[in-house]
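Researcher: We're teaching a course module on how sequence relates to structure. For the next exercise, students receive a sequence and then see the predicted structure as tokens, so they can try to spot secondary structure elements on their own. Here is the exercise chain.
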Amino acid sequence: MPAAAGGPGDVLTDASGIPLAVGLHSTLALDAGLVGDGARLLAVANRLGLPVAEGVVITMAGVENDDRLDALKHAWRRTGGPVHVMLSDRGPRSGLSVGPSRCDASTWEGLLDDVHDILAYDLLENPSRADGSWAILVLKVPAGSRRVLAQADHRGHIRLMAADEQRRLSWRARLRLRALARQARELVGRPVSLEAMCTADGDWVVTDLRHLVSRIVRSHRADEP
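Model: And here is the predicted structure for the students to work with:
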């Protein structure tokens, strides 16, 4: 498969030049029509300077035309080891899929089996997705690290929540993650919810990013039941 003309070497195209897989840090990943809105938001965050994890997106065209699994193999060769696999679709309420995502991509067979299980789970939980267009994001994550959620609301308040087992973070780790969440809110320009994982060096990498929708409490009028 040829690389896209003038594009980075990690862009896989078909014979007609249509991107089948693109690196998350590629400019092509900024196109929601190729990668869906969830992966695009991560690509935007990387462009803004946030420490987004390395990853490869199997584009919507790649999902539709990947009969020989060339795009998934391309993603596997550039990630390997522990990865998260998520689905990214388009639309005002779209984002990255929620559910099992952790995979062992140290072998091709391991990744293939885990992706099959994730797709089967998503089809069961989200049957409507089968009627739409979606891409697959394979995200390289730190080995042995747990996920932590951080939310920065419209007032700038930061909330941290453990996504895996409930072990306490060190003071230094909490300080760094709060600073990352605050930076993400400032750069994106609106409240955000992010998922991050800690590297062996003690730094945080962003593995998921979503717009945080604040709950609006509606007050009842005195004459309402």
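Model: If you want an answer key for the exercise: The longest strand covers residues 81-89. Residues 1-8, 216-225 have pLDDT under 50 and may be disordered.
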